[in-house]
Each structure stands twice: as C-alpha cells, then as structure tokens.
Amino acid sequence: MDSLIQYTGIIASVWIVSGIVVASLFYPGYSHSRQFCSELGAFGSPTQKLSPVINNYPLGLLFILFGYYLISTYSLHMPTIVIGIMVITHGLCTWICGFFPMDADPYTTEPSMSCNIHSWSGMIMLVSFIVAPIIVVFSSMYPFAVRVFSLLCIIGCFYFSYRLSVAFKARTIPGTYQRLSYGFQILWLFVYSWFVVS
C-alpha cells in the first residue's frame, strides 16, 4: 500500500486532466475555452452528478493520500510537512467543491450559498498550491532545478490568473486561462511528486 500511496500525486495530476475531458463528453456543447471546469458540476448541468463522482471525490482522496505520504515520510523536515498539509488542504477543498456546486450562471450577481462555499473553497485550493511551491523555492533541501521550476510555475499561475480575471470581465475565454493557471499548479505537482518518489 505504501508503494502505491507515494505515486498518488502523479496519479492525481493525470487523473484531473482525464476526468475533465471524460466528463465534458457527456455535456453537449460544453466549451473548454469559454466555460469553467466547475461548470461541469454546476446546478442543472447535464453532468452535475457525474462530474464530482469522477473528478472531485477521487481527486480529493488522491491529494489527501499524497499529503499523508509527504508528512509521514518526511516527518523530520518541517517545510515538506507544511507542503503535505497544503496538499491535504487542497484535497479537502476539492471534496467541498464537489459537494457544493456552483451556480449555473457564473456571472450571476446573487450567488447561492452553495456557490459561495464553492468559490471560497476554490480560492483556498488556489492558495494552497501557491504556498506549497513557494516553500520549495525557499527550501535548501531541494535541488536548484526543482526550486527554479517551482518559481516558474508560480509565475505562470499568477500570470494566467490575471488573464483569467480579464477574460472573465470581458466574457471571452476564461475557461482557457483557468486551465492554464491551474495547469501550472498541476504541472508543479506532477514534477514535485516525481522528484520525491524518484
């Protein structure tokens, strides 16, 4: 079991991309460029029930298991313990985002309680995977290449988060920039996970 748990970060990185693609196949007319990933599980969407089952719930478990692996394996290294806590936090919030759907209209001026919970959980998810690579950047335990890569992923995430904000206000292609922003975080997780188990 331990040998499998150490690969859960890598598995999660691949799973999230595959899960979004698969779920979108059951949503007629879904646009990856114009719609958010969370719209797959939004109230009233064709995949409201399906998306959390194949995305949020298994992904949350994978994140939590990987965070547990980091904490238990590197129990004498505080920076890695904090990274593990951030990964577990990301997993818990992934569950919350699945349990509390966003509203069907992302531009609604009066979001429901469920949508507010979803949005705040999503914000915590974003922050948790900013804090984690920042810790790597400033930790001498990690090789220089891993620290530089982590910094580049942070910059990429911030840049495309800004582009996402602009695209959302302009109602153009926020989905593209959301995927790129979160994509840098998932790319970081994949490379970091590969490093710690190699």
From TrEMBL:
UniProt-listed InterPro entries: DUF998 (IPR009339)
Keywords: Membrane, Transmembrane, Transmembrane helix
Pfam family, one: DUF998
Domain of life of the organism encoding this protein: Bacteria
Natural source organism: Oceanimonas baumannii
Official protein name in the record: Uncharacterized protein DUF998
Signal peptide span: none
Transmembrane segment boundaries: 6-27, 57-75, 81-102, 123-142, 148-168, 180-197
